[in-house]
Amino acid sequence: MAAGQDIHLVMDNGSSHTSTKSRAWLAAHPRFNVHHTPKHASWLNQVEIFFSTLTRRILRRGQFASQEELAEKIDEFVLAYDQTDAKPYRWTYDGTPLKAT
């Protein structure tokens, strides 16, 4: 990655991501752009499920002659997944505190 390129981080609101030290480090390194998931969200789980599917179907046993071929295979997978497997995900949270069971 070129030194001038921005890096986007998607993180939950865990205390390790929002601590004073973490915020200070990120402020000192402006190329890192943090995007927090909503509190009480399972959005990040959906992303993890997608990458797990990508890994199982394409990456785990894949052999790629170049980075370009790998990128092409991932692009092909994403387009096919969008057409055949992707389902809308509707997340809601009404603000009621979650209870441990």
Percentage of residues in DSSP E strands? 5-15%
- Amino-to-carboxy terminus distance: 45 Å
List low-confidence stretches: none
Shape: flat
Q: What is the rounded Rg?
A: 18 Å
Arithmetic mean of pLDDT: 83
Number of domains: 2
Please, how many helices?
4
Largest sheet: 2 strands, parallel
Strand order of the largest sheet: 1-2
**Using DSSP, what is the number of strands?**
2
Portion of residues within helices: 40-55%
Return the string of H and E elements.
Answer: EHHEHH
Secondary-structure-derived class: mainly alpha
Domain Tc1-like transposase DDE: 6-70
InterPro entries: RNaseH-like_sf, RNaseH_sf, Tc1-like_DDE_dom
Protein name: Transposase
Pfam families: DDE_3
Can you give a write-up of this model?
It is a single chain. The chain has four helices and two strands. With about 100 residues, it is mostly helical. It has two domains: about 1-20 and about 25-40, no CATH class; about 40-85. The protein has a two-stranded parallel sheet with strand order 1-2. The longest helix is centred in the C-terminal third of the chain and has 18 residues, at about 65-85. It is flat and about 45 Å long. The model has no long low-confidence stretch (mean pLDDT about 85).
